[in-house]
Amino acid sequence: MDAVAVENLTKVYPTRKGPVQALSGVSFRVAAGEIVGLLGANGAGKTTIIKIVCGLVRATSGRAEIFGVPSHRAEVARHVAALLEGSRNVYWRLSVEENLRFFAGLQGIPPRQAKKQAQELIQFFGLGEKRKVTANLLSQGMKQKLALACALIKGTPVLLLDEPTLGLDVEASHELRGFIRELASARRKTVLLSSHDMGVVEDTCARVIILSRGRVVADDRVPNLLALFRTRAYRVILRDGLPEGIATQLAARFSTFRWLSQERALHVELSPSQSFYELVDALRGANVEIEAVGRSEPDLEEVFLRLIREEKGT
Amino acid sequence: MRRFHAFWAIFTRFLIEIKRYPFNTLSGIVTLYLIFLLLFAGAKYAQGFGVNVFGEGLEALVVGFLVWTFALTAYSDLSWEIMREAQQGTLEQLYMCPFGFRFVSLAWVLSSFLVSLLFTGALLGLMMITTGKFLRLPLGTLIPLLFLTLAPIYGVGFLMAGLALVFKRIQAFFQILQFVFVPLLFLPAEEWWAKALPLSLGSRLIREVMTEGKSLPALPALDLLMLLGTASFYFGLGLCAFKACEKVAKDRGLLAHY
What is the pLDDT of residues A30-78, one digit of tens each? Predict the structure, then answer.
């Protein structure tokens, strides 16, 4: 059985200025133990999907289920916990330990067990010294860790993380990514993570669903998405620049040739019939010395931008 | 049992927050006591001119004020709490309780009632010392009567909480409503129409218990039935209104907004 099943989900928000279409026929499934990223610009529908899946927003049509339980039923909370809007999910006047024990209790976990689990999570997230400190006195990174721990203490198999690294500095974000990766590997959690930060998604998710204007534009494993836009593009840095005559010759021979004079680099995308050695031979023939050669690989950001542009027809 | 653990977690948090804001808790009691002193001084002054302001003397004043204090807490606690939770961003987490948000709010209401018993008990002690009128406190009769009397107010509390979910800022309406409770306490509770309204019959029965020492079986059965009926009706109405507002909030995605 799928951990998360979303089928033909549509959401229209009624507003004073008229209806706003947030989702249009979104469908996807997440298998148990998978970490899947929802990637999209602001307003793409990521948060709406997450909130429908955990039962906080009603879908206009379609269905969302967690392990077969419809998301609008309260029992769905036995299977899913969510970190929404980052650190705003904890009680600022309660200490780290009090927060954890409260959320465990809310799930129906007996106090003794809640205390034990709280201790474990405090250790896991390195919050030992801050155990008795109220949440309002913690740094942003620690608040975020606490919010994640509060979601984890519920012991649900599925975790929904909406912008988990929002507002964190590089170091804290890196640390939190590590924790998220560990959730799937060591704790066997299913994670659906939404973010507009490519780094977070690329670093933590094996599969990515790209959204644009409430629609799924792509849904695939990260290497497959990267392969979609992989080209035979090379960047060659020359020691002493490129004489103008040679540049003209190369441009005539390689249609994608670009000379970036400030960087002393040339950029070329080879066609399937062309070989990289043709380019090297041409440069050597003109007595141009090569300093370095690199292959340009598309990253997730580039894939995302190209898919979105294609979808928008720009 | 899992539900009890959830209730216990909510009750414990309620107590922790009271402990963490001692000034707020104490100032609440002191303010109510000062209001009572003003009323008491006014009533004494009026009685000097032969005017019996509260109809049935000081006992009526003490009991009426006591029920009003309870009513204020009963209807404000839940809606304030919902506004606060929405503001700090924890409301959605409460909605993700596996027993449902209605369970969470009922647990909150029960916690608030239990804590109110304690604080209002202290206030009652102060009032009795001030007036020199020592009322009877048969808790076995008083607590169920008090709960039935306040049930319609909890219903209003649920209605207000529902409105807070949708409209967020309802403080103005909220403050006006608390003064509507005052005349309800002093309506002629022997009239059928007054019995059908919240607070009126219940406060009269509480007065009878506290001044005449009547026990539950000694109270008119028809009145008790009427009290049970109004309690269920207004409480149910409040819950239905809350459910309707909750549906609107979930449709519009308003649970996290403030």
Answer: 999 899 999 888 888 999 999 999 999 999 999 999 999 999 998 999 9
* pLDDT for position B55: 53
Structure tokens given for A166: 């929002």
Record: contact A82-B92, CB cut-off 8 A: yes
Selected residues 81-100 of chain B with any CB under 8 Å from a CB in chain A: 88-90, 92-100
Q: How far is B254 from chain A (nearest CA, A)?
A: 8
The Cα–Cα gap between A55 and A61 comes to: 14
Closest CA to A140 of A88, A194, A81: A88
Closest CA to B200 of B240, B242, B234: B234
8 A C-beta contact, residue B26 and residue B33: no
Q: Is the pLDDT of residue A159 over 90?
A: yes
Give which of B127, B20, B35 is closest to B72, Cα–Cα.
B35
Q: Count CA atoms closer than 13 A to B59's CA, side-chain side.
A: 16
DSSP string, A192-252: EEEES-HHHHHHH-SEEEEEETTEEEEEEEHHHHHHHT---EEEEEESS---HHHHHHHHH
3-state secondary structure chain B: CHHHHHHHHHHHHHHHHHHHCHHHHHHHHHHHHHHHHHHHHHHHHHHHCCCCCCCCHHHHHHHHHHHHHHHHHHHHHHHHHHHHHHHHCCHHHHHCCCCCHHHHHHHHHHHHHHHHHHHHHHHHHHHHHHHCCCCCCCHHHHHHHHHHHHHHHHHHHHHHHHHHHHHCCCHHHHHHHHHHHHHHHCCCCCCHHHHCCCCHHHHHHHHHHHHHCCCHHHCCHHHHHHHHHHHHHHHHHHHHHHHHHHHHHHHHCCCCCC
B109 close to B77: Cβ distance less than 8 angstroms: yes
B16: nearest CB among A57, A98, A108: A98
Cross-strand pairs, A194: A38, A162
DSSP A289: P
Token pair of B17, please?
A: 């927050």
Overall pTM > 0.80: yes
3-state helix, strand, coil in chain A (%, to 5): 40, 25, 30
Closest-CA distance of chain A to residue B96, Å? 5
Q: Which of B91, B93, B111 to probe the A interface (max A CBs under 10 A)?
A: B93
What ipTM score was computed for the predicted complex, to two decimals? 0.83
In this structure, is the dihedral angle defined by the CA atoms of residues A123, A93, B95 and B108, taken in order, positive or negative? Answer: positive
Residues of B in contact with A90 (CB under 8 A): 90
A108 contacts B6? CB cut-off 8 A: yes
Q: Quote the Cα angle for A128-A146-A199, to 5°.
A: 115
Quick one: DSSP state of residue A272?
A: T
Instruction: Give contacts of A 127-186 with B, CB under 8 A.
Output: 150
- Tell me which chain B residue has its CA closest to the CA of residue A16: B252
- E strand or H helix that includes residue A143: helix A140-152
Mutation target among B96, B247, B248 for the A interface, most CBs of A within 10 A: B96
